[in-house]
Design a protein that fits this description.
Keywords: Signal. This is Twin-arginine translocation signal domain-containing protein. InterPro entries: 6-hairpin_glycosidase_sf (IPR008928), 6hp_glycosidase-like_sf (IPR012341), GH116_catalytic (IPR006775), GH116_N (IPR024462), Non-lysos_glucosylceramidase (IPR052566), TAT_signal (IPR006311), TAT_signal_bac_arc (IPR019546). Pfam families: DUF608, Glyco_hydr_116N. The chain has a 10-stranded antiparallel beta sheet, covered by helices on one side. The protein is globular and about 80 Å long. The protein folds into 3 domains: 277 residues, Distorted Sandwich (Beta-galactosidase, Chain A, domain 5), CATH 2.70.98; 378 residues, Glycosyltransferase (Alpha/alpha barrel); 112 residues, Golgi alpha-mannosidase II (Immunoglobulin-like). By secondary structure, the protein is α+β, with helices and mostly antiparallel strands. A hairpin with a 2-residue loop joins strand 7 and strand 8. The N and C termini lie far apart (71 Å). It has 20 helices and 39 strands. Helix 11 packs antiparallel against helix 12 and helix 18 packs parallel to helix 20.
Length: 903
């Protein structure tokens, strides 16, 4: 396997002295930037400002990108299964990237790219440092093999052939509803419109069926005229198995026609030669490919000479063809249908792959059992993948579409649903893997910084809510398994860095509480309690002076060891110990619960008294070392109240004073939110380019006190981070703002990120930090959680909703331990109606928490589960009306829970 050119962030920042600017000539300041007035939050200055702020709350329409607006070039939606490699769907429906062959490259386009702006002319930037942000890869430039679809129409003595790409159609529309894209091809000169739905099976809670290495294309041909049309659809795929080693190993490629069950297609394999490598099948990129259709009258051609024009529509006579690796070999699968006037026909296709030889490193850091892909346990080759999908096509498609429709059937804005959910696509990139042993493993971003990094992935909230089994496995097998030491410390990169990071340690304890909550019972907590307790005690032990504020210098996510009492680390550790307290209470470990309670009370009080400067939280220097080493000190740091943000994700209540938390968030808005990052970077040098000229965002640290050395007395390479604009941190702040009622600011910040990733600028499905599809960006799901006011505790059978806006007419999806569905609440004639409807699986409940809509007096409560009236008790605590059922209730699809509150 090739040398992947590992380059540290230290080298990048110290050598290049970047100013965080770029694309200056092509991106202009957003029209709404004038509305943003840092200082007192968002100001609705005048009619334009009021209108724009209001628009952020509006449902609006599905996010759609158009050929006519030149918005398709950079689109790359992940359409492979989770942990199955990285495969992109382009804006016009063609596949690109093809990172399914275990190359382990760093970044989706591992090249040093030019940084073309007036300040950095002639400089280059690496993948892991923002190359894909500055120079977004174009679909047409990153195509490893040939693939596509073409349509032949025969009608009224005419024959017309059009490929399904943007060059052949008057208009192409891409609906960006991850995990299902809908692409519509229209042309006024043709009698039909074509609609492609493309996706990989995606079923929340079901990691196995969401991890299939396959892409489904449902291609619908709609006859909009008054006469019938004969439509022939040809799908083609190049046999490029072993694309990197095939020629070197002197193998041949073989394409074979097959029909099995409902699937008809071409199966792509390798053939050894007498003079070739006799162990070629052990090469990292060895495997198989397959293209199939479910069409009843399908035919195939195992080798076409030309993918242009009529040759695509000629059925072949040979059942197999073999060619040398240096020769191009393309097969086609052809479906034919008669489309009556005003009717439509849908032709389904399946593209599958099987590249089992995944190995992360060549130094044997990982055990042998962790080499290879998990899907190799389920399928022996790509043909088996295709035939499995074909045999289960209806269920896999319907469940995927059910989730997509459940997610978007909401009163929340389409753009907000997009941005808070889309980063789950990182799981369907080569950021995230599942080894043959079943173990889940991740880089920080594609091919960069290995080992399930605790101080990065603890920010991510999406995986735990959508695929909780993945996170439980990571806690048990890694954090509480190979990484846990006798003193309770957790190695922060598994086998790859044998030391703890203090923020990652706290995040993993908090994660244990979340994983317990997203379980059906207390088995996870019981089985792991002794280890969780040890990890929690490790945090307590890092408080050297016993004031409840951690002060032991340990690694943190800014790649440094800071001295002193640091508000963001102190608060995060307090939140973790509070989670430890609640777990101890559930385990009836009264002594440890008391230890945690004392620590939390002392720490919260001292943080309030000693780390708040009257406006925001600070870093109190070590009394001996002072400000000798790097730190945030009196600056305004983006994560300063991260502990309270985490607390809202798992229902811990307050761990940091409310007034001080709000003041700190307002200070972040005042000092750290920047209208034009390009202009900002002109005078704040050293950061990497994650926001450019004309783009808004929140930077890591600012210096409100105008100190000459705000980050310590010694210049260090890590100081470059302080001037960066990284979306994962921004999402964390946005989720906290949303929870605290700063909904305007939360939406503006989230929208700023959304606009930075508009398809006219770069790939909207790839938020970038240290390489592509960065794990921390899944903090975005936390903003969705807090917008719904959602809390859940599976073992207790308790769920809660408290929407932050549109309380009188609100609908949003939810996920739980065994099921998912929708929550709706409405106000009607002084009454409040709430409906909890399971769409998939089941939901066991003992109680539900609601907030009464203003104007509703819940003097009477009526609760129905399906057709059964329930006996309930109600109590009010901290603004929540808790409705407790007299016996456990199991909700199933078709039998919703309906609650009516009224006078």
């Amino acid at each position: 396997m090739q040398d992947h050119h590992k380059i540290s962030r230290r080298n990048f920042i110290s050598q290049s002295s970047l100013a965080g600017a770029g694309l200056a000539l092509t991106v202009t300041t957003p029209a709404w930037a004038g509305v943003l007035q840092p200082g007192n939050g968002v100001q609705n200055t005048g009619p334009a400002g009021t209108t724009w702020i209001r628009s952020l709350y509006e449902r609006a329409t599905v996010t759609t990108y158009l050929k006519s607006k030149n918005e398709l070039t950079y689109i790359g939606m992940s359409v492979g299964g989770i942990n199955a490699g990285g495969l992109y769907l382009g804006g016009d429906g063609k596949l690109w990237l093809w990172d399914i062959f275990n190359l382990n490259q760093e970044g989706i386009n591992p090249l040093d790219v030019p940084w073309k702006d007036p300040v950095h002319e002639g400089q280059k930037i690496r993948s892991r440092d923002g190359g894909s942000y500055v120079a977004p890869p174009r679909a047409g430039d990153v195509r490893l093999l040939e693939q596509g679809f073409a349509l032949k129409l025969e009608y009224a003595d005419k024959t017309v052939i059009r490929k399904l790409d943007e060059k052949d159609w008057e208009e192409v529309r891409f609906e960006a509803t991850y995990p299902v894209a809908t692409i519509t091809y229209t042309d006024h000169a043709l009698p039909v419109d074509v609609v492609m739905q493309a996706f990989s099976p995606f079923i929340p809670l079901d990691t196995d069926r969401s991890g299939i290495p396959a892409t489904i294309f449902n291609i619908e041909i709609r006859n909009k005229e008054t006469q019938p049309v004969k439509a022939s659809l040809a799908g083609w795929l190049e046999n490029k198995v072993a694309p990197y080693t095939g020629m070197m190993n002197r193998v041949q490629r073989k394409s074979t026609a097959f029909k099995e069950g409902s699937a008809t297609g071409v199966y792509y394999t390798l053939e050894k030669t007498a003079f070739g490598n006799q162990q070629a099948e052990k090469s990292f990129d060895c495997g198989t490919l397959c293209l199939a259709t479910l069409g009843s009258n399908a035919t195939v051609n195992v080798a076409v000479d030309d993918v242009e024009g009529a040759a695509l529509f000629v059925a072949g006579e040979a059942s197999e063809t073999v060619k040398a690796a240096q020769q191009k070999l393309v097969g086609t699968v052809l479906s034919v249908a008669e489309v009556s006037a005003g009717q439509s026909v849908t032709l389904p296709y399946i593209l599958s792959w099987h590249s089992p030889n995944l190995a992360i490193d060549s130094g044997n850091v990982l055990p042998a059992a962790d080499r290879g892909r998990y899907y190799d346990n389920q399928f022996r080759n790509a043909r088996e993948v295709a035939t499995y999908v074909a045999a289960n096509f209806k269920e896999l498609s319907e469940l995927t579409l059910l989730w997509k429709n459940t997610w978007y059937d909401s009163t929340l804005p389409y753009w907000f649903l997009d941005r808070t959910f889309v980063n789950i696509a990182a799981l369907a990139s080569t950021t995230s893997h599942r080894f043959k042993s079943g173990r889940y493993w991740a880089w920080e971003g594609v091919g960069a910084c290995q080992g399930n990094c605790t101080h990065v992935w603890q920010y991510a909230q999406g995986t735990a809510r959508l695929f909780p089994a993945m996170e439980r496995d990571n806690r048990e097998r890694v954090d509480l398994g190979i990484s846990l030491q006798e003193d309770g410390g957790i190695w922060f990169r598994g086998e790859y860095d044998k030391r703890p990071a203090i923020d990652g340690q706290a995040g993993r304890v908090l994660g244990c509480y979340r994983e317990h909550q997203m379980s059906t019972d207390d088995r996870f907590l019981r089985q792991n309690w002794d280890k969780i307790k040890r990890a929690t005690q490790f945090i307590i032990n890092q408080d050297k002076n016993k004031d409840g504020m951690v002060d032991t210098p340990l690694e943190n996510t800014l790649d440094a060891i800071w001295d002193g009492e640091i508000a963001w680390i102190v608060g995060l550790c307090i939140a973790a110990v509070k989670a430890g307290q609640l777990m101890a209470e559930e385990m009836k470990d009264a002594a440890f619960a008391a230890t945690c309670r004392e620590y939390v009370q002392k720490g919260s009080r001292n943080m309030q008294d000693h780390l708040f400067n009257g406006e925001y939280f600070i870093h109190r220097p070590d009394p001996v070392k002072g400000r000798k080493n790097v730190g945030s000190y009196n600056t305004c740091h983006i994560d300063q109240v991260f502990g309270q943000s985490w607390a809202f994700q798992v229902g811990l209540g307050r761990v940091i004073d409310q007034k001080q938390s709000l003041s700190a968030l307002r200070a972040l808005w005042k000092y750290n939110f920047v209208k034009d990052m390009g202009r900002y970077a002109e005078t704040h040098k050293g950061g990497r380019p994650y926001a450019l000229y004309g783009e808004s965002g929140m930077v890591m640290n600012t210096n409100p006190k105008n100190e000459p050395k705000p980050y310590g007395d010694s210049a260090t390479w890590q100081m470059g981070y302080f001037h960066e604009c990284m979306s994962g941190f921004e999402h964390q702040v946005a989720s906290h703002m949303m929870a605290e009622g700063m909904t305007d600011e939360a939406l503006v910040l989230t929208r700023a990120i959304h606009d930075r990733y508009h398809a006219s600028r770069r790939n909207p499905f790839n938020e970038i930090e240290c390489s592509d599809h960065y794990g921390r960006a899944m903090a975005s799901y936390g903003t969705f959680i807090t917008a719904c006011g959602f809390e859940y505790h599976g073992p207790k059978g308790d769920i809660r909703f408290a929407p932050k806006w549109h309380q009188e007419n609100f609908k949003a999806p939810f996920t739980a331990a065994e099921g998912w569905g929708s929550y709706t609440q409405k106000k009607n004639q002084g009454r409040q109606e709430a409906i909890l409807e399971v769409k998939y699986g089941k939901l066991l409940l003992n109680s539900i928490g609601l907030q009464a809509i203003p104007g509703v007096k819940p003097r009477s409560i009526s609760v129905m589960a399906g057709n059964e009236k329930l006996v309930v008790k109600a109590e009010t605590s901290v603004g929540t009306l808790r409705i407790r059922f007299s016996k456990p209730v199991t909700l199933l699809p078709g039998a919703p829970l309906t609650i009516v509150l009224g006078a």
